[in-house]
Amino acid sequence: MQYNRPACVDQFAELALLVGLGASGDGPEALSQRFVDGMADLLASVNIPRSLKEMGLAEDKQDYVAVTSLASARLVKNNPRPLDEAAMRHLTMPPMQATAPPCARSAAAPYPPQ
Amino acid sequence: MPGALAASCAFGVAGTAAAHALQYPVGDLTHAAHGDGSPACCPM
Fold first, then answer.
1. What is the pLDDT of residue A98?
2. Which of A47, A72, A88 to probe the B interface (max B CBs under 10 A)?
3. Residue A88: its chain B contacts at CB < 8 A?
4. How far apart are the first and last CA of chain B?
5. Which of A36, B10, B21, B22 has the fewest CB atoms found within 10 Å of its own CB?
6. What number is the ipTM of this complex?
7. Whole-angstrom Cα distance, residue A31 to residue A7?
């Protein structure tokens, strides 16, 4: 969601309003980020793992996951924002996969890297 | 349960994307359930 947010600003902003995460005067950029953060908090509240490491993925398998996930061509093609190998590596490797909460590390690790 | 049905109807139309693509190899390696792994990948 954090990766896709730039391609889904209006949709995420609308969803933020629907789930009561802000008011329409807050602006679509802020609302869309609030929706991503709100979903991360919701999932954490029901004990969904917050990183690949928490799911039990070894660090030396992050590259394998990045490359292999591209084989799901239909899902990759359906993603709102284009996904290539570099983008998948960004999602599966540090700093995106550090131990901080999803929102904090996503904000610290924007894609494309700056 | 109605919420789960509504969600399923939604992605039955829209399809799924990056989070689910990521979960397949992760689930293969960790044996995590798809229902745990996919939402784990969602915020990313």
1. 62
2. A72
3. 22
4. 26
5. B10
6. 0.77
7. 14
